[in-house]
Write a structure and sequence with these properties.
Blueprint lengths: L1 E6 L2 E4 L4 E9 L4 E9 L6 E7 L4 E3 L7 E6 L4 E6 L8 E9 L4 E3 L3 E6 L1
Length: 116
C-alpha cells in the first residue's frame, strides 16, 4: 500500500503561481506512475499531469506550457508547479500513485482557488 499526502494549495490571483507537493510513503519502490488530477465543484475528476518512472510525462491540453510535474526520488515527493494560473484552474487537486500490479492510491486533496 502507498499513502499520499498533498500540500501547497491556497488562494492566488490570476497569473500567479503555486507549487503542490505530494509525499508518498509505504511501498514507494513499487510506484511506476504518479499523477495529478483535479475536481471542480459539480464536475468530474479530470487528469492534469502524469509522470512515469521512466521519466516520461504527460499533460492535459488545458495546462500544457503552464504546469510542470516533477519528482524528487530521494524525498519520495512529486511536485506540480503551476504558473500563469487562471480562474478555471480552481479545483481540489489530488495526487494519485499507481503501483506495478495495478494498485491505485489517492491522496486527500488540496484546494486551489484562483481569483479573477
Amino acid at each position: 500500500q502507498v499513502q499520499l499526502v498533498e500540500s501547497g494549495g491556497g488562494l492566488v490571483q490570476t497569473g500567479g503561481s503555486l507549487r503542490l507537493s505530494c509525499v508518498a510513503s509505504g511501498r514507494t519502490f513499487n510506484i511506476y506512475n504518479t499523477g495529478w488530477f483535479r475536481q471542480a465543484p459539480g464536475e468530474e475528476r479530470e487528469f492534469v499531469a502524469g509522470r512515469w518512472s521512466s521519466g516520461n510525462t504527460a499533460y492535459a491540453d488545458s495546462v500544457k506550457g503552464r504546469f510542470t510535474i516533477s519528482r524528487d526520488n530521494a524525498k519520495d515527493t512529486v511536485y506540480l508547479q503551476m504558473n500563469n494560473l487562471k480562474p478555471e484552474d480552481t479545483a481540489v487537486y489530488y495526487c494519485r500513485a499507481v503501483e506495478t500490479g495495478g494498485n491505485v492510491s489517492w491522496g486527500q486533496g488540496t484546494q486551489v482557488t484562483v481569483s479573477s
